[in-house]
Structures are given as C-alpha cells and as structure tokens.
Amino acid sequence: MGHVPFFDELVKVAVIAVVVTVILSRFRLPMVAGLLFAGALMGPEGLALVRSTEAITVLAEVGVVFLLFTIGLEFSLQRLKHIFRQVLLGGVLQVGLTIAVVAAIAMGFGLSLGTALFFGFVFALSSTAIVLRGLSERHELDAPHGRFIVGTLIFQDLCVVPMVLIVPLLATEKHPGDVALDVGLAIVEAVVVVVLTLAGSRFVVPRLFRWVVASGSREVFLLAVLAMCIGTAWLTSLVGLSLALGAFLGGLLVADTEYGDRAMGDVLPLKDAFMSVFFVSLGMLFDPRVVIEQPLLVGLLLVGFLVVKGVLATISALAMRFPARVAWLAGVGLAQFGEFGFVLVKLGQEVGLVDEPTVRPVLAAGIFSMFLTPLLVRAAPHLTAGEQMLAPLEKLIGVRGIDEVAPGDARPDDHVVLVGYGVGGKLAGRSLDACGVPYVILELNAETVRSHRKEGLPIYYGDATSVEALGHANLQRARAIVLMINDRAAVRRVIDSARRAAPRVPILVRTHFMAVRDELLGRGVDEAVATELEGSLELVALLLRRLGVPRNTIDERIHDLRSDEPLSARTRTIPRRELGHHPDLAGLKIESALLDAQSPAAGRSPVELDLRARTGALLVAVKRADTLLDELAPGEALESGDVVYLVGSGASVRTAMALLLGNGASDA
User: Fold this and answer.
1) C-alpha angle 229/231/235, rounded to 5°?
2) Regarding the domain delimited by 416-564, which CATH topology (the fold level of the hierarchy) does it fall under?
3) What contacts 403, CB < 8 A, 6 or more positions away?
C-alpha cells in the first residue's frame, strides 16, 4: 500500500497529544489545556513537528461539525423550557453587551463598522466545550451560576447561526440599508430552513429511523446517524448556509425522536476524538512570534477576553438579580475565546473582512484565554475578593434577598432553615410540614422562589453564604440548618458562616461523595449523608428484591455492607439517641413512638400490656397533645395520638416498639 497523505502528521498529533496531556494531568491541569499546549508545541511555530496543518485543519472542521451535531442532539424544547429565562434574558444581555462594547472600542481605534461588529461577534462567544466540561466535572451544572452559564452558552450557540449568515454581508461595500435588507433575508432564509427541519423531525425522521432500527444492525444505525449529520450539513451548504448550521439542524432532527439518546451514545466517542484534534489544531495556530513582536497588543486583547468580557457577563448576571457570588462565578466561567470564534475568524478571512496579520494577535490572546480558563474557573470559588468588589454594585442594581422580607411575614422562631429547594429540599419541606415543624427556605433560583412564594411557602431569595442572610433567617433561634445544594465551595462557606452566626445550631449536609463527607465532618458538621453510598445501597436492595431474595436476607446484606463501610452515616435502623451523659448509661437508648388508632397499645394501659416485664424497656413519659405527662398512672390507658418515650437497651426498645405498634415496627 502506498503512502497515505498527512498520515505522518496525524500519528504525531495523536502520540504527542496523549503524552503531553498525561504529563500535564499529573499537575492536575485540565485536558483541554493539555491539548492546546500540545498543539502549540508541535505546530509550525513551535517545534515544527507538524509542518503541514492542512489535513489537521480539515479534521478540526469535521470536529466542529460533530460538536454542533451533538449540541443539536442535546438541545430539546423540554430542556430549554427549564432554563428559558437564563437562555433568553441572560444570553441577550451577555451577547448584546459584549458586541456593543467591543464594537464601540474597535471603532474608537479606527476600524469600520463591519469589522468592528465582526470582532464583537468573535468576543461574544465563549467555549462551550471547555466550560461545560468543567461544570460537569465539578457537578455544578445545576448550581445557580451553572444554570446561568449553560443558558448563556445555549444562546451563544444559537447565535452562531445568524452570525455565520451576517459575516459575509459585513464584508460587502453595499449601502447600510441594502446590508440590513440582506441580513433580514438571510435570517428569514435561516428561519425557513429551521421550520422545515422541525417539520422533518416530526414527520419524516421518526419513520426513517424506525425503518433503520427494524434492520436490527447497530452498524446500520450508526451509519444512518452519520448520514443525518453529514447529509444535512451538505444540504445546507448547497443553499449557501454553513456546514455548522446544517450539523446543528441534523442534531435537532434526531433529538426529538425516541432514538436521540442512542444516537448521542453512538456519536459521542467520534465527537470527542475529533474535538481533541480540533483543540490540538487550535493550539497549532498559536504563534509565539506574535507575542514577542506585539506583546502589548496581545496582552490588551487577553485582558479584553478575561476582564472586559468577564465584567460584562457579571453585569448580565447581576441584572438578572443573581447575587454577587453567582455573578462572579458566571463572569469567570464565560470569560474566554470560543471554538466558534475560530470558525468566525476563518470565515472573516475567507470573505475578505479581515486579513491574517489582523487576526493573529486575536487568536494568540484567545488561545491563551482558553488555556487559562480551566485554571481560573477552578480557583474562582476560593477567591472572595471578586464578589466583595461586586457587593456595592449588587446593592445598586437592587438584588432582592431575604433581607427584604415581605410585609406580613412573621420572623421565624424554633424552626429549621433549608438551604436549597430542589428535590431534596422539597422532600424535607413536605416532611416538616407533615410533622408540624416550621421552616424557612433560602434559594438562589429566582424562578423557584417566585413560583413557590405564590403557593405560600416560606421561601426567600437569599445567599446562605452570607452571615446577614442567615441572620435574617433567624438562624440563632433555629433548631437546625439543612444544606441541600450542589455547589461544593458554597457548602463550605455556608458551614463557616453558620458556625459564626449560630455556633450551637446543628448542621446537616447532603453531599455526593464519601471523601467530601469526611472533609465536611472535619469542618464541624453534625451530620453528613453521601448520596454516593446511600444511592448505591438503595440500588443494591432493589436489585436483590428484583432477583427474589427474601426481605430479611436483603436487610442482613445491607446491614453487612453498612458495617463494612467505616464512613457509613446510617445504621440498619434510624439512629437512636444515646444517654451518654453518664458513662454507665451509654448502652441505653431512648426512642419515641406515635400511637395511632390501629396501634395495639391504643386504649390499653402499660399495666395491661405488661410492658416492663415482657420487653425490659421502661416507659418514662407520654406526650399528649402539647402536654408532656412524665407521671402517667400505671392503670391509665394510652390514647391514639400519644407519643410514648421508651428507655432501655437496643433490643429491649425494639421489642417494646413491636409490642406497642405491631410486628415489624422496629424495622422502620
């Protein structure tokens, strides 16, 4: 077989990218930073290990096509509905402000309106691949700043479509009115294509994929997905639209069918491979000579990406009434050059809007910003100076919080403070309602606060990392504070603030990982539950039940698993309080039980039950209505609704619970 063109370059790219990325991972640097560095190292302006970048550039463009196809697969109307406000308002504010400010600065330096708008487009886009990867690794996609960032990135990705249509028009010498007309026609053309795509996704594509799936061949299904991706990209290119737009629409065609998830699973490895090549090729564009020859210009452009763009994104978040911490993290997360900026730069050169000497400093600064972003995003939660500087602006804009209690709201007392009102927060709130325990909710999702306030819930828009917010929640008089939020750094700060505001109030935390649980307990948390363990045990129990294993055997296996795990927060039963004030009484347990009409003990006295002799447990008190009866007459009957308090060894208490409530009650 003869020599395959560019095969040598592709081998070098694969080998060096793996080596460099593995080495940098030892220093805990993100993979994207490693790929960019590998590209700069082996590129024509580095060690020149790859002299011809043509084939690599072609593969990189294929990577962009696959990226947009997978974004189309992930883009569903249902997902958009949940973050619609962030997508629409946040995206319009961030993209609009960035384009306007950058275009104004560019025109101040003497550039034409068309070129200035072009650079506004380039600066407005952020790196979807880098930012989403970082948020996913830190489990912050559902955190308040994560939702804002994801919504803004979706809007940016959608903006790529009209930007790609508009850039060629900016290069023309037509009258502004004619250009505006052409832009309008281009947008109408894009809308028509999108409408046809949505119609195809509803009527044509599902039938086509049902026919493909009927073949029973995984290979045929994968080929059909690839044909949908490449075919729609090719068709849109025939009518003058971009390959990237076609790939995005192809993803939309498949996303709304029942085969969207399967298609994503099949295409994802290919996308990751091509995207890796894309970042390497982007690194190859880095020219160190530009930095040496024009250090001031490259430095100013880097400041533009990291500082100016970050500040504008922060202002956008503040304008949507997010608190300073969320706005600070959102600004850092969106402050970099985007992969689609590279696409726009290439398009601008092709249509003659900009030349290579003009864009080389922009690419150098942009690649620098992409390399620094994973490092800055990792450090941002630990830097409080940024949000402290934003505090005056936060008050100026008028971010509302719990400090602005609505008229008629009573100051809570003897309550529980819930931080976060997702699934876990709602379960806790319903349980507290059922038990008659008052509570206050602090939440940073403005839509969640607004909707549940209408339902009459005591929920407030407040940042629990703030001592002032905890003070307004009257934490000093609370019975406990429960943290159910996904932002790990915010959890640590809430713990510190809660300990300063109310040192004696118990802190209960839900976390995802056992390692983090150990760290939180070291910070003074009273209780920490790791969903990693509890969810795994629940899944094991369901598996054994599905396999027909008897219930008592399942209980024993789960008990054994908990015993083998030294960090397990739960025992086989709900933990009972120990009488540990005296060492000799440490083995005794105290437990309570609510009697209902079906309880065997209802209507019978402790003497009739022969409770002490039969179980060994001692009934020490009864709570009837709101009165604690600590001297119940031996012959006085227990009533439905009584709460009885028992003391004894663990076995005695379990036996007494079974006698009072019925068989199996002790396993509750």
Assistant:
1) 125
2) Rossmann fold (3.40.50)
3) 462, 468, 469, 472
| DSSP 8-state assignment for residue 307 | I
CA distance 643 to 638: 9
DSSP structure string for 613-631:
HHH--EEEEEEETTEEESS
CATH 3.40.50.720 boundaries in the chain: 416-564
**In Å, how far are 151, 508, 628 from 413, measured between CA atoms?**
38, 18, 21
Q: Between β-strands 459-461 and 439-443, what pairing exists: parallel, antiparallel or unpaired?
A: parallel
Beta strands 459-461 and 480-483 are unpaired
Q: Tell me, what's the pLDDT at 570?
A: 47
Q: What is the pLDDT of residues 600-653, one digit of tens each?
A: 888 888 888 888 888 888 888 898 887 888 777 778 888 888 888 888 888 888
User: What's the N-to-C CA distance of the chain in angstroms?
Assistant: 72
**What is the spatial order of strands in the sheet that 589-594 belongs to?**
577-578, 589-594, 643-648, 618-624, 627-629
Residue 291's contacts (CB-CB under 8 Å, 6 or more residues apart) are 298, 364
The ranges of the chain annotated as CATH 3.30.70.1450 are 578-667
- Judged by phi (left if over 0) then psi (alpha if -120 to 50, else beta), residue 399 lies in beta
Residue spans in the chain of domains classed CATH 1.20.1530.20 = 7-388
At the second CATH level, the architecture of 7-388 is: Up-down Bundle (1.20)
